[in-house]
Amino acid sequence: MGEDAAAQVLRHFSRDETQRVTTAMAKLSGIKSDSAKNVIQHFFEDFRQHSGIRGASKEYLSNTLRKALGNDLAKGLLNNLYGDEIRNNMQRLQW
């Protein structure tokens, strides 16, 4: 997540929450991009399961991820998220 996006998120935290998050962030090291992608993917899966919203629009999600992660990471994650949907549509078209 970029600095601007992280700052906006942290603005919504209490002092205690901010301290806990920043302490945890300071202890992180050696995180691989695959691990980060998996965490984000699981977050969105959990979000869909536990909320009344059936998921964000593809365009909104794409734009948000590109701003937070950059094009390369976002593209891979979006392919993981929407790959099954695209495959299913392609199979229907083959019929």
From TrEMBL:
InterPro entries in the cross-refs: Flg_Motor_Flig (IPR000090), FliG_a-hlx (IPR011002), FliG_N (IPR028263)
Membrane topology: Peripheral membrane protein
Protein location: Bacterial flagellum basal body; Cell inner membrane
Main subcellular location of this protein, as a coarse class: other
Keyword Membrane in annotation: yes
Domain Flagellar motor switch protein FliG N-terminal: 1-84
Superkingdom classification of source: Bacteria
Keyword set includes Cell membrane: yes
Keyword entries, A-Z: Bacterial flagellum, Cell membrane, Cell projection, Chemotaxis, Cilium, Flagellar rotation, Flagellum, Membrane
Its job: FliG is one of three proteins (FliG, FliN, FliM) that forms the rotor-mounted switch complex (C ring), located at the base of the basal body. This complex interacts with the CheY and CheZ chemotaxis proteins, in addition to contacting components of the motor that determine the direction of flagellar rotation.
Family: Belongs to the FliG family.
Listed name of the protein: Flagellar motor switch protein FliG
